[in-house]
Structures are given as C-alpha cells and as structure tokens.
Amino acid sequence: MSDMNGYLLREQAYTAGDSTFVECTNEENNFAVVFEDDTDTGYFYAMEVEPGTGKQTILDAVHIYNIEEVPAQQRQGTIRIIWSKDWQRCALIINNYCHAVFDFENQGGYCRNEFPPPNSIWTKGERTLTNEMVAAFFK
Description:
It comes from Niastella populi. This protein is mainly beta. The chain is about 5% helix and about 50% strand.
C-alpha cells in the first residue's frame, strides 16, 4: 500500500465481524464509497450523490469477506479509503492490503474474489482485482 499515490480521506480502526459503516464522499465530483460490515459479511459500495439533494444511488457493490473466513487473529485492524489524484478511482485498504477498487471514470468495480459477477449496469467485464491493476490505477 505504501506505493499508492493518492489521497487518504478516511482511516479508521475496526474489528471484522463488528457492525461497521464507513462512508467517504469525494468533494471533487459527485461520487462516494461506503464500506459496510453487517457482522456477517463485508461489502464495498460505489455511489453517486445527486447535487443539491444529496440523494445517493448505488452504482456497484463488491464483496470483501465473509466473517467466518477471516481468522480471529486478523480481525482487528485499520480501514483506509484512498482516492486517486484525479479523483476517478477509489481503493479500500484493510490492514495495508488493497481489497477493492472502484474506477468511476470507466464504470468498473474490482475485488480480489470477483464477487458478485459482473453486471449489465456498471461493471460489464472482468472483475478480479490484481496487484498490477492497483499499481496502474494509483501510479
């Protein structure tokens, strides 16, 4: 994560499996992201915020984890949300590991486990996030 070139807008301690809601609005455009842990699963959402009203529309969502798959010794940590310098991409970093990226410019949501499958609305192609993609997004 140390080589990611962007803006750290949120940093928060958390415990996987505890109810968590971390929202991060991009003031440079009308986009926002949310990380949510509902005590069973972790998801990362891309949203558009309507100017004036603040109404939020979910554009895409990617699965981060199921709590039963997270070892107990790895559940406490830090969430970081980093926006690229052009404000078009946003990454979810948990414990110094990039789990997901939303590319608002190209309408793509990417995560390590490629779930849910691509949809016909926003992410239409490959959804798997790779280290090479992370490096390219945040160079």
